[in-house]
Amino acid sequence: MIKGLIAPILSPFNDDLSFNQELYNELAAELLSTGCSGLAPFGTTGEALSVSSSERMAALEGLIASGVDPQCIIPGTGLCNLPESIALSRHAVERGCAGVMTLPPFYFKGMGDDGYFDYFEKLIDGVDHPDLKIYLYHIPQVSGVGLSIDLVTRLRTAYPDVIVGIKDSSGDWDNTRRLLAIDGLIVYPGAELPVIDAIRLGGPGCISATANLNGGDIANVIDLCHAGKWDEAEAAHKPVKEVRMLFQDYAPIPAQKALLARRTGEARWNNLRPPFRAMGDDRRDALAASLEPYGMRF
């Protein structure tokens, strides 16, 4: 289990929209040195469904070759077809990653819990590796397919050594709370907003998109919680929540990439694969100005 803040690291692209490994490695090193305890490559924030399986594998190998400990990496491996989900998951496990974060097969809707259970059962059988650890990925407002409490409980019961956790990006605290009640399940909220409540119920931290730009402050809140300094954590949490809400008024991926490009002077951070489009300068500058009172300079 990775205890603390996990960053769903942004994916950089060159001007021809090929993947840029150098920028990726640099951001990973920065995140891990400024408060993040782990990385979750190729989730929603990493534009995962715009990145091919071969690119994901090469990028993961590049991260590890750059010196990132694979035990702090939980890459996204969930696609709609079993063969590639199996291949991505096995590739990550064989390279020593702490686990894989796996979406349900999201194209086909309304298949019911039995169908989705069958999918994960076949995924586990296909990977066929003793070190496989799956963190389910629940983000129904984006994927269109949710993971019910009953299904998660059933999977956890059937495969307690494999289905070890879940990232709950539903934004529904009641759902997160019910997941935290499942015996032994590691639950990461998909944002920092409920992280104190989650830690009080046994959660290890969170996986948050804004870790890419505000990792130090979010990590500080989590560290204070684990140290039992609840009053200090609550005080530190207030501005962290305000920053998160500012980002939620914008398209988060283009906004973060635009600010990262402005902060680093590296224009390629502003490249996105369609259908995403880069944020306009006026909106970028307005967001940057709104973040200055929080000590964030771009």
Describe the protein.
This protein has 298 residues and is α/β, with parallel strands linked by helices. It has a single domain (4-229), classed as TIM Barrel (Alpha-Beta Barrel), CATH 3.20.20. It is built from 12 helices and 7 strands. Helix 2 (53-65) runs parallel beside helix 3, helix 3 packs across helix 4 and helix 9 packs antiparallel against helix 10. It starts with a strand and ends in a 7-residue tail after the last helix.
Q: Order of SSEs, N→C?
A: EHEHHEHEHHEHEHEHHHH
* Tally of separate domains: 1
Roughly what is the average pLDDT, rounded to an integer? 97
CATH class: Alpha Beta
Choose one word for the global shape: globular
Features:
globular, 4-stranded parallel beta sheet, 298 residues, TIM Barrel, 12 helices, alpha/beta, 3-stranded parallel beta sheet
Q: How would you summarize what this structure contains?
A:
47% of the residues lie in helices and 9% in strands. With 298 residues, the chain is of the alpha/beta class.
Helices and strands in order:
Blueprint: E1 4-7, H1 21-33, E2 38-39, H2 53-65, H3 82-94, E3 100-102, H4 112-127, E4 134-138, H5 140-143, H6 149-158, E5 163-168, H7 173-180, E6 186-189, H8 195-200, E7 205-207, H9 211-226, H10 230-247, H11 252-264, H12 281-291
Parallel strand pairs: 1-2, 1-7, 3-4, 4-5, 5-6
